[in-house]
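Annex B, item 7. Sequence and C-alpha cells for protein A, then protein B.
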Amino acid sequence: MNDIRRLAVIGAGTMGRGIAQTAAAAGIVVTLHDLSPDLLHSALDAIRASLDEAVARRKSSPVFRDVVLDRIRPVADFSAALDAVDLAIESVPESLPLKLDIFRRLDAAAPPAAILATNTSALPVAELAAATSRPDRVLGLHFFNPVPLMPLLEVVRTPSTSLATVDTALALAHRLAKQPIVVRDSPGFATSRLGLAIGLEAMRMLEQGVASAEDIDRAMTLGYRHPVGPLRLTDLVGLDVRLAVAEHLHRTLATDTFRPPEILRRLVAEGKLGKKVGQGFYRWDEPQTP
C-alpha cells in the first residue's frame, strides 16, 4: 500500500482548490495546476479566505493556516506539477473527451507507480482507466462540496482497479478525515444517481407550480432531515454540472427519471448557473469563481 506524501490536483476550480486545501491540511504536499494563471491566483485567494475564516471562528490558528498554505504550490506547467507525485487527481469540467485527454497526459507525465484518480460525479471511470497504461492504478475519488467540510468520499472502483489501489484510497480517505464508501463503477455511482433523481423531481415540482423553491427545499430539510434542500444544493453544485450529469444518466440508463426538465435547460441557457454566478434557483449576494 502506498503512503501518499505528494499529490497533484489538476483543475483549480471550486472542487480542485477544496481538495488541495483538505490534502494540505492533512500534511500532504500539493501541487495545484490549471491552464489559467488567473484561476490559480483566485484559487489560492479562496483557500486563504477559507483558512482565515477558520481562524476567525477559532477553529484553527494563524500558524496552522500558514503551514497549510505553504504546502500548496501553484504550478502552471502540467508536467512539472506531476513531478514525483504519489497520486494525481483531476477535477476538470464534466466532459468525457476532456477527461480522456487529461488522463492520457497524466499517464504520460506522472511517475509509473502513481495512482491516477478522477473527481467525476458520474462519468465512466473504466473509460478513463482504459486511456492509460496503468488501469490497475486508476479509480474515482468523488469529493463533495465544500470539500473541507463534507465528510463523505465516494471511492469508485473499476473491474481493473487493484485491491492495493483501493486500500491506498481508503487510507487516504481516513487521513483526510473523510468517511469512505466503495462503489462499483456504474452510471451515477451511488450518490449522484440518488441525489440527482431527487433534484430533478424537485425541479419538475417547481415547474408544475406544486410549491415554491423555498418550500420544496424546506420539505426535505424539515421532513427528511436533509442538511440542504435539493434546489439549493443544485445552486451550490452548479446547474450546468447537474445538467451535464442528467444528460449522461438519461443516455446511459435510458430512463425518464433523468430526463432534464425544461426549467433546468432554460436556466443554464440563460447563464443562471447557481451560486458561482450569483443566480440559479435562488439569488446569491456574492458571485463566486466557478
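Protein B:
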Amino acid sequence: MSTPLIPSPAGVYDVLVLGGGVSGSIAAIAAARTGARVLLVEEHGFLGGSLTAMGVGPMMSFHNPSGEQVVRGIPDELIGRLQARGASLGHIPDTTTYCSTVTPFDSEELKIELETMLTEDGGEILFHTQLAATELADHRLAAAVICNKAGLTPLRAKIFIDATGDADLAARAGVAFTYGRTADGLAQPMTMNLKLANVDTAAVRDYARRHPEDFLWSPVGQAEGLRRLASSPRLSLAGFLGAWKAARERGEIDVPRDQVLFFETPVSGVVIVNTSRIVGLNATDPFQLSRAEMIGRRQCSQIFHFLRQHAPGFAAAVRMDTAAKVGVRETRHVAGLYQITADDIMTSRAFDDAIALGGYPIDIHAPSSETTATTRLQPSARYQIPLRSLMVERPENLLVVGRCISATHEAAAAFRVSPIAMAIGQAGGVTAAEAAQRGVNPAQVPFAAIRERLLQQGAQLPSLETSARAATA
C-alpha cells in the first residue's frame, strides 16, 4: 500500500532551495533579498553543511595566491557578521602556505548567523526534511516531494535550486550527470573530521620552527611558512611526517594518507584534524555512505591516539567530537549548458556570463592512493564561473549550485571549496529570484539584470571590458 501525499499548506513558493549547506544558504539569502518568497529545505536541524555537519574548517580561500580577494558579496558579509559576534578572526595568513589566507570561524555561531540572515530577509527554513521524489510536467519541475515526520509532502515552486551537493534533485528529475573522474568513475575520498581541545599550540609552533623538515610547505617555501608561523594568530600545519610514517609502518595506523593536517579554530588550542581518508566508496549509495561513517570514526580514533602519543603539543589533547556526518568532496557533476574544464581554470578563461571568481588551486585528493595532487595557479589568477554551468537543459526551471555544477573532475577540485561555492550560490539565488519574478525560466533572464543585481549585493565580478572581450572571442 502506497503512502499518501500530504497536501502542502504553503501554496507555491517563488524559489525552493533543496540543501542548507553554505552554498544553498547563501542562495536562499540572495533570492530573499531580491524580493522572492523563499523556502530552504535541509536534512539536518541546522544550516552550514560541510562547515557544520561535516566539521570542515577553516574556509579556504577568499583570496588568490597573491593575496588578492576574489570572493566578496554575501559570503564576505557573513564573515564580517561573524567577526562582529567574536566568532571569526576574519581572513588570516595560512601557515601551511597552501593558500595565501584561511578564514577560521565558530561553527555554532555560523549556524545561528545563517539562520538570522535568511529570516531577516523574509526567507523560511524547513529542517529535518529530505527529498523523496520529484513531479515533472512539460519539461519543468512541478514539485519536490519531501519526507519528514509529517510524511510525504509535495512542495511547489516557480524555480527550484539544487544545493544538495550531490545533485540529488537534478538526478531525480532526470538530469544526466557524471560521477567522479572520467577515466574510472572514482571520486575524491571522503574524510571524517575530528575536533580536539587543549592543544598546546605554542609547543606545536616551537616544534615546527625547530623541525621545519617534518612539515610540508607549498612552493612559496619553508622560509615563508616560518614567517607566517611567527605572525599568524592561528595555526595551520601539515606534517609530523616522520612519526606518522613510523606509526603506519608499525601498524598502529591504517589511514591511507601521507600527512597529518590540522587547523586551529578561533578558540585558541581547539583544532580541527582533517586527516582521515576513506577511499573507493560512493557517497550517493546509502549503504556505502554508512560504511564510510564507520570507517571514518575508527580512523579518527587512531589519529587521536597517534597525536596524543607522538605529536608535540598534543599530549594533553581532549577529544571533543567527530563530525555529525562524514565529509564528502565529490560525487555527481550535472551535465549543464556549459562544462567547466581544468583548462578554463588554469587559463582564467573569460566568460561573458561570469557570475563568480575563484583563486583556489586544483586540489585533488587521490581517489585511489594516499597522495594529494595540486595544480598551482599563477599568483594573480582569477578564474571565472559561467552562469551556464549552473543551468541544465531540462527541467527548464532548475538551477544547480555548489560543488555539483557542470564541470570536470579536475575543474571541480578547484571551486568545490566553501567561499567559491557560496559565491556560486549567491548567483544562483539571484538568477532564480529574477526568473520567478519575471515569470520566465532562468535561461531567459537577461544577464545584464543578473549582473547588476549581483553587484548591488556586493559580489566580485570581472570588469565589463573583460566580459565584452569574452563575448567577441
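Comment on protein B: The chain is about 30% helix and 20% strand.
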